[in-house]
Fold each of these.
Amino acid sequence: MSEQRIGGTTGSAQIPNRTTHITGWGHEVPAATLTNADLEKIVETSDEWITTRTGIRERRIASKGETTASMGALAAARALAVAGIKADDVDLIVVATLTPDHLMPSTAVLIKGALGSTRAAAFDLSAACSGFAYAYAVAHGFLTAGLGQRALVIGAETLSRSVDWSDRSTCVLFGDGAGAIVLEALDLEAGQGAASRPGTLSFELSADPSGAYALWIPGGVGEGADPLIKMDGAKTYVYATRTMAAVATAAIERAGLTPAQVDLVIPHQANIRIIEHVSKAINYPMEKIFVNLDKYGNTSAASIPIALSEAVAAGRLKPGDVFCTVAFGGGYTSGAFVTRWGADPAHGARAASVDPASIRVVRPEGGAKADEPPAVLQAFLDRRHR
């Protein structure tokens, strides 16, 4: 089946000369770290095997009470603080996740409640590891259509609760975390071209149903309660290397730019070999690609916003810089967007003003299964705290 692709630019906005720009950012990862050495005690593997094949050295694991919604809410609260706005200044909350706390209510609604928002529309979006790019495009369309002024775009996952911890081919890959941005509408001056235009320059989204069951989670109303990730690693690797390069190239060209005019690439953090392949395929130097998968592993829809937040903190983006994000995921899906950075990186210090104790997600009476780590990880966490 052929790949289906859509793309867009600021020129397609319903309000002429309107685009969007990022004004806030933040992330949250669990405190508990699971190293490759720790994994050697859970499955038959080794630090050398994992590191050489993936580039991953450790990942963060959610403890009891840490959920997709709770981490997403903290990341969102920090993004709001960085942007200097309140929750009720936001018109839309979009959460990209494949590990929601529940099928219903949406994680976005739980996050809205935790933030104290009273007016934003809120919903979840599922596009696997490409989810953040899809959510960004949806929020961009909402704002450029004149339906609001600001949106929270969040990627959040607790993949440790959807991993088969007896399958060494997949359990070594994934981690937990959340990242968020505030996306605001921006009215452009007439005649601004790609060389000077601020904010969102382009995006590119694609979907290829031929890979629907090469990377999937069977659990659902029709399939019953199997929530564990299944992956054909070889097929997924081929798709990822081919498609990430194609989608990144298309997004950069759609922005009217060349790779040489892009200051930073922030790829989905899945595998260092995939990232290195994309670097060669688009003739883009690795030193201009932001990588943090060694610390977090693959956090699916959360990987790009976490990496973006850390890239700003590391001084890798300054006003006027152009960056491109690119991702692939189950479905198969892929997505990319190109943006010119305009925010003051120093505003990132405002995230420290958020008190985590003030951000509380409402849980059902008696708790929920989403609050609990798998038994093998709970035993590991218990040993850590002795």
Amino acid sequence: MKNLFYILVLSLLFLSACDNVEDAVFDENPEQRLSSVLSDYKAKLIEGDGKWIAYYFGNAISMKFNEDNTVEFESTYNDGDDDNTISYRISASQIPELTFESYSVFHAIYEANRDEAEYEFLFDQVSDDRIDFISKTDSGSEKTRLSFFKSSDGDLEEAKEMMAEYSKLSFFKKLIIEGSEYEAQVIGFSDKIVLRIPLDDGRYQIIENDYEISKNGLLFPKGLEVDGLIVESFDFDKENSGFTSEVDGKKITIVVGEVLESEAGVFNGYMSVNLRNVKQTSYAIKEMVPSLVEGVPLLNEIQIYSEFGYVLCYAPGTPGSNWGGFSDFTFAEKEDAPEQLQVTWGYLTFGPWWRDVYNTDGAKMLLALITDPNGVYISKYGLNSYILISNTDPSMYILVE
């Protein structure tokens, strides 16, 4: 009986202690708990020197977060012209969010990409050296994702060097898995990387993936699925001019390969349609379209007419004409390379504002590619789309359809 009494007393003391712990936890109301979370997030941003780096829409963005709710930007975007020091806010309506309150590089990217980018982000995951965000405004399940990585001096310059290395890579790349027969063609456009996987019936599976270039190599914000493996990043292998990753003990490599033999019938397939529009560019000429937009603000399409011999900018509403550009092109099959394209230009122009086109770097990039004296390699991409690749510099190519 005495032992039972002691057990009862100890049990009551234990329950009382638990009640005290629970009371302490709930001493704070929901507003106080939220305020504490927001304070913790700010403390994480300004921790140490407050420096972070992000890779967004093909750009590296360095940030220094300060205690006074200002953030200093330095980026590769637009030669740094939009790198301002602005205010930031950490707040919450339902989920904690980071908002850049005044105009800077994130707003500039947002405007340049026709509202597809973002400058308000929801906190997703936080660790010592990385903060993951998702878009506040994206609808649906596929949210835009952005990661901040803890950075140090020199990271931005290293990112610039990596971008320069990547821009040199040839169109002809492939992905292989060590110890496996898996192989896919890798096509890098300015804003996405595509895996072109051969199927047993002779067709190809096309898988498009968003990517960013980091100081170390390539990042895939949503993960790149490769034969059942999910790859988040590749490190640059400078010695072999490629990229490597390891997942579940398997080495995955992107390497530059040999020029592929031209597909039978690809020239006639390309020439079967008079008008084709430029839809994508390689990373090496990623400034082609933005440059043309500077000269022709209402630019809607870049058009190539293989039968009529025109290369035009279509800009409806532009004073004088909806079209401007160049004429007197001849599109023919390359004499010493069947299935390849040889384009010559008679140096005639079209429309009252052709000079606005010609004076841009973008026009020079486009003309250099399609009138390459060594010819243009044609690769079939989709049902009625093709990639035109410079033979002289195969890092320069465009997707047309």
Amino acid sequence: MVWLNFVPAAAALGGTQPTIGEPAPAFTLPTNSGDGEISLRDYRGQWLVVYFYPKDFTSGCTLEARKFQQDLPKYIEINTQILGISADDVDSHAKFCDAEGLKFPLLADTDGAVSKAYGSWLSPYSLRHTYIIDPNGILREKFLGVRPPIHSQEVLDRLDELQVL
């Protein structure tokens, strides 16, 4: 049996992953906060955590969002912003933010175009993947095997390593 073309399931499911060390795929998406639209370029000069998740109000997604919210002051302290992206619409995101007290933006990728660009799409849902983007818009890390209970701390630990390089 030949395994030369073996691709790990987590990566294969969502499609082609962007390359670490290269510019992160650009995006502009509607959101429930601010001016109603957010672009990657809006975050130049700051570190950015972009996390994709399947669905508002589901158990794993709610836990992941709560953990990011709980740690939000730690992210702000290290010049890092958080963006959540799913295929849910802006109205769903507004209700989810209100219900969970989320103070970071959620973006509506209703057609999956941005999720696809990040290799994080399994129609009709975004996959649970996270990406760290540096202040120059360069992709520095990706997390494909996300475990919601500990994920925010994993991201903070990796940011700590990346920001001293």
